[in-house]
Amino acid sequence: MDQLTHGADSDRLRAIGDALVTLAGRTRTVEGDGTAQAMLLAMHWTGDDADRFGQSWATARTRLAEAADLLDTYGGRARTQAAEQEAGSAGATGGGPPSSAGPRLPMTPPLAAADLYDELEDMTPQERADYLESDEFRDLAVADPEGTKEALDRAFDDGLFADDPVAYADYLEQYWIDRALQQAGIDPAEWDPSQGFDGNRDIVSAVYEYYGELYLANPDLEWAAMANMIGPSFAGGFADLDLARDVAQGVLAGAPLLPPPHAGNLAVLASLSDADLAFYESTLLSMQQEIFFDQGSMHQAYVDGGIAEIERMHAAGVIDDNAMQAWYGIDSGDPARVDDGNHRLLWREQNQIIVDDYQTIYSHFPTGPAVTYGITLIGEPTIPGAQTFGEVFPVTFDVETPGPHTIPFTGIDNPLQGTVTVTTPLPEGNVADQSSRWALIEQDTWPAFADLTDEEIRAIVESDFDTRLDEARPVNNVDRIVARILSGFDADVRQ
């Protein structure tokens, strides 16, 4: 199709082209928003219905992408013809004004953001909630995000959502998630944990680089710095989860006489299937995504709007009292309160946001307990001075040497008999257990981070993340990890 129209004026052609390109952008936004919501739903919905929905959405997503490409193609053609007609008109001699082929297409949405407040005011609570779920509202929010937010914020402040605050809270949370995604350079349509580490490699790095940029712009955002620094150990873990098999096999070969249940866990770990590994890898990637949606949205709201936007999130019910107090502390500028505020955000991450994900992994029987044990055993924090789980909470056991306590018939202590206390590098605990994981953070990881100077933190955060990730990946350290574990046994003999 070489010609879209014949005899139409260039202004109208350009209007058509602009409208088609705008629709293409809105279609891609629908695709992206739908994919993000589908991923959130998949975290909490399982079974045959969930599988069917996932398959149906995959088909719909493809069709939306095709429709967006088609709109872009013909929008571009219309713009090109408009330019060609203008060039032709400029070169022609004489002639009157160009003919009109009809009224121009409207270049604003059916409802302008400036009128949104009045429209919401005339709606019932249910109508407002339904409208915020509509395609019309989605188009408006894409066309004028700032104007839409201003109208929604005013409506909330004036009590229009008092009977149903959830609709506004959902909008506000998604608004700041979208802003964080934009700042991080992440396309939500491409962020799919089910595609594994290799399918999300660039996004994994973009997440931690975003955290680093937050800290470099404002050193009071210590949680972001810590997240950037620990990122290589966390991301490296799910990038090379299959290496857990190699490590387990190496430890079993080098130390065959291990106490139960540790020997049993290592045996299960050494024989994991590829299907099990894929499940654990995608679940860990989903955890990274959940953390970003929660912490990224709060941090971006604070960066863009200060404490007032955090207070708005709290008033709407997006965040709780603990998070609000955290941000008051961070915003105070007082070093002790800043530290406490960031510590509260860390507590939120570990004890509210991802606690259920760890339990999902642990409860994936029969291999879940062994996999979380393996993560606990192999994990090495990439924060200077921080120790492994086994170094902080090692497994110890006593062995009685044979023979009587005294030399027979004398009552004299037998020097050949006693108790041998064996300290192992094996972890006494499991990261899937909420209290054990938080104890490790409280007693070692957080203090190690807090002991670093601002200059030391900045030097690490400013360094190339991908280089740090490659250096931390178990695939590049498997021999050293096995050697660390095998050399970590110690014995203390007591009579």
Automatic annotation (TrEMBL):
<protein>
    <recommendedName>
        <fullName>WXG100 family type VII secretion target</fullName>
    </recommendedName>
</protein>
<feature type="compositionally biased region" description="Low complexity">
    <location>
        <begin position="80"/>
        <end position="90"/>
    </location>
</feature>
<feature type="region of interest" description="Disordered">
    <location>
        <begin position="79"/>
        <end position="110"/>
    </location>
</feature>
